[in-house]
Amino acid sequence: MKKIRLEVIGMSYSQLQSGAYALILGEADGRRRLPIIIGSFEAQSIALELEKMKPSRPLTHDLFKTFATTFDISITEVLIHKFSDGIFYALLHCTNGEQKAEIDSRTSDAVALALRFRCPVYTTEEVMTLAAIDMSEQNELLEIDGQDDENDAETYISEYDNYEIEELEKMMQQAIDNEDYEKASLLRDEIKRRSGA
Questions:
Q1: For the whole prediction, is pTM greater than 0.85?
Q2: Contact predicate 8/25, CB 8 Å
Q3: What CA–CA distances, in Å, run from 118 to 49, 76, 90, 109?
């Protein structure tokens, strides 16, 4: 079975399900994207790790990593091996140096843990064929329709426009300390927007 390496491309609020997010995984050496609907808790956990933001108290995925490493257990890779009835299935490949094991996991949890263990995420061609979106085809359709994302972009107005970056950074840290990760993410996005990152 040939494995395809995936990378976390980003996340967005899901238009399909209220309170859910779309985690976008991209083919490392290709143009296909795998959109996976995940819950808000998992989205926050993934976003915090991607942005290297440290919560005041450990989240469940942080606790799992600390627990595993305390007993010399590591995750060597994550494999998204199945897509059925709109649900992705993942396996954690774990080892303690002597024994190896595969543990069934929700894909969102598996990705959150992969980021913490700095291990690769893979999938199969079968999963990509069933669920991936080919971005080169999407771009061709946009050109045919004559759509231009840049021309359609709306003026961005933020509730934080009146604050300086230093104030936003303090507000973000306060939000993290208060475990208000949704607000912290919004503030982080505003800081990134202003710095052109």
A1: no
A2: yes
A3: 11, 8, 17, 14
Beta bridge mates, 74: 95
* Token representation of residue 175: 């939000």
Q: Which helix (H) or strand (E) holds 75?
A: strand 74-84
Between CA 18 and CA 181 the distance in angstroms is 18
CA distance 123 to 82: 8
Using CA atoms, how far apart are residues 65 and 37, in angstroms rounded to an integer?
A: 23
pLDDT digits (tens, 9 = 90+) for 157-195: 456 667 788 888 888 888 787 777 777 777 777 787 777
The domain segmentation of the chain, as residue ranges, is 3-135, 158-195
Q: Which residue has the tokens 């992705």?
A: 88
- Residue 52: what residue type? K
Q: Which residue's entry shows tokens 């202003």? A: 194
* pLDDT, mean of residues 109-130: 96
Average pLDDT over residues 82-104: 95
Third-level CATH fold of 3-135: Bifunctional nuclease domain (3.10.690)
